[in-house]
Amino acid sequence: MRVLIIGDDVGGRRAIEDAVRGVSPDADVISMDDSSEVLRVNGYDKSKRVQIKTFGEFAVFADGKPVDFRYSKSLELFALIVDRRGKKVDNGMIRRMLWQESDREADHSSYISTLKKEIVQTFSARGITDIFLQEDRSISLVIDRVECDYYDYVEDKIGNMKYNGIYMEQYSWAESTAGLLYSISEYRKKISH
């Protein structure tokens, strides 16, 4: 078992480390005080100010620090924008993907506009203003201006070792992309033998 502990409190990290070793003495425990070190260890390109982790649970970093959104739906919308790999995401798609069937008929237009605005402003507050394209009621990501494990994997810039078989596990709408990634993984395994 491998456990990664990140935090500024050295004493807190040591207490967690001791607790893990008490339960699993053979655990490989890695303790770091900075999330930017996690990005470096995992091979992210620091020249790109936004790093996106899609394998496992979705996470976003700007300049090595976690990006927090005010609304959980903002994070989910950003994940959907990332999933589309630079293609436009319009309000209709957002409504279909982010809300359950029973709630899709409601008019979420103003809330969707609020979510898109929050996403753009969250990055703008960090001086990152060049990663989105917006027109009419759609938004897309400029994919060559971000570092993303999913994009690098599809373009075969990283090997199968970076793909753990899990893609944005917290979002059910991501299952089709997870299936695509699994197919790519199986194909690459087959041709490498």
Task: Give a count of the beta strands, DSSP E runs of length 2 or more.
Answer: 9
Beginning-to-end CA distance, first to last residue: 28 Å
Q: Write the CATH fold name.
A: Arc Repressor Mutant, subunit A
Global Rg? 18 Å
Enumerate how many helices there are, as a single number.
7
Shape: globular
Structural class: alpha/beta
Query: In the CATH hierarchy, what is the superfamily?
Result: Winged helix-like DNA-binding domain superfamily/Winged helix DNA-binding domain
Main traits of this protein?
four-stranded mixed β-sheet; Arc Repressor Mutant, subunit A; 193 residues; globular; 7 helices
Explain what the structure shows.
This protein is an alpha/beta fold and about 190 residues long. The chain has a single domain, classed as Winged helix-like DNA-binding domain superfamily/Winged helix DNA-binding domain (Arc Repressor Mutant, subunit A). The protein has seven helices and nine strands. The chain has helices spanning about 10-25, 35-40, 70-85, 90-100, 110-125, 150-155, 175-190, and strands at about 1-5, 30, 50-55, 60, 65, 90, 130-135, 140, 145-150. It has a four-stranded mixed beta sheet with strand order 5-4-3-9. A three-stranded antiparallel beta sheet has the order 6-8-7. Mean pLDDT is about 80; it is low at about 35-40.
